[in-house]
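Hi everyone, sorry if this is the wrong subforum. Our group has a chain we'd like a structural model of before ordering constructs, and none of us has done structure prediction before. Sequence below.
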Amino acid sequence: MCGRYASSASQELLTEIFEIDDVAGPLPPASFNVAPTDEVTAVVERMVDGNRRRRLVPLRWGLVPSWSSDPSRAASLINARLETVAEKPAFRRAFAVRRCLVPADGYFEWYLTDRLDSRGRRVKQPYFIRPADGTMLAMAGLYEFWKDPDGFWLSTCTVITTPATDAVGHLHDRMPVTVGVPQWAAWLDPSYTGDPHTLLTVDATRLTAYPVSTAVNKVANNSPDLVLPLPEPVGE
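Answer:
Right subforum, don't worry. Here is the predicted structure as tokens:
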């Protein structure tokens, strides 16, 4: 799964990279420890005054389907499995017409080591997984709109995951799916009539993973230090 990630790019940089037309409302600040139900920055395309516009928007991470009776299960829908995303009622409509990109520096996974803590439990070591060339991940996401009985609108999203490749599979059995630059336009286009599956990328060979501080375990911690490699090797 993808349950924690870092997203530190500025609004200006995101606007340049994704060729943004509009910024819809204030965006969440840079975060090195994005957690479920946090507000995140996403790239969408929407019709505005008859024209399709590419926008940076704030979305809450944890998808709430439009037909849901309440948003309480959002934290359990932070990920959508690629294998079933086109069939699951919670995701299939969004997969057809409400696709987005979720920019990230990289994401965290926890590896169960053979080391024991003071209570005799095996230690989970966090790793940060990011592109080896320092570029940004454009994670494939879906978004939805939900309206409560009082008329309040909630905009939410989920990140699509797939079985992990060998390069990162030893850390976790799943990984986020990404969208390559040539496919961004089609992926974001709500009128796209092809199979969205063909626009997705599963390429872990360009990723690098390294152990980071256990400070990331606490969602309250949020600083650039969380994504720095540990100075000493971590035994397994």
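For your construct planning: DSSP finds four helices and 15 strands in the chain. Residues 11-17 form the longest helix (7 residues).
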